[in-house]
């Protein structure tokens, strides 16, 4: 049964729905009349474009909503990062000592039976932190050597200048740059202007320091025995 009791009401409603952008099928579902009647009633009206515009508008609004949500997350993430940085404050020498030991044991070379100090990383702040720790350990600049490892497609000269600025030491402390050949079949992520290779920090006559690191790491592990109920395997 139609929602409308009279023919005039059906026709007027059909024309109204057509002007809103409805198709014949949609009007038929709404009014319960035949498509032939609908065609007769609305044939003088322009073909609807409102539906397409509505879809486009909906998509635009959805995109704007996603962009707003993304920007809101960025603000929240930055606020969290800033709060965490403020919470750390100034490090004591003991905190830096423990941090450096853990950092080296995670990222540094542990070759045996002739241990040597080698620390490799592409993050300049990791390098700066490790160098601050070495100075805390009374390692003089004369014992420091650096090796840049970088792909041949990069700006090698700019990268060398960049790392010299980071470590605060000149070319005399740098070994010859190790240039890696580019393999076009490899899908590398470390590309672009921000790519400056990896830097290896080496300490001359570092065997004794390596043993101190090893012992200190064992001490750190031993310090949490009450929690882990384990024993340092070193």
TrEMBL record:
Q: Which domain of life, per UniProt?
A: Bacteria
Give me the ranges of the annotated region Disordered: 51-71
Q: What is this protein called?
A: Uncharacterized protein
**What organism does the UniProt record list as the source?**
Streptomyces polychromogenes
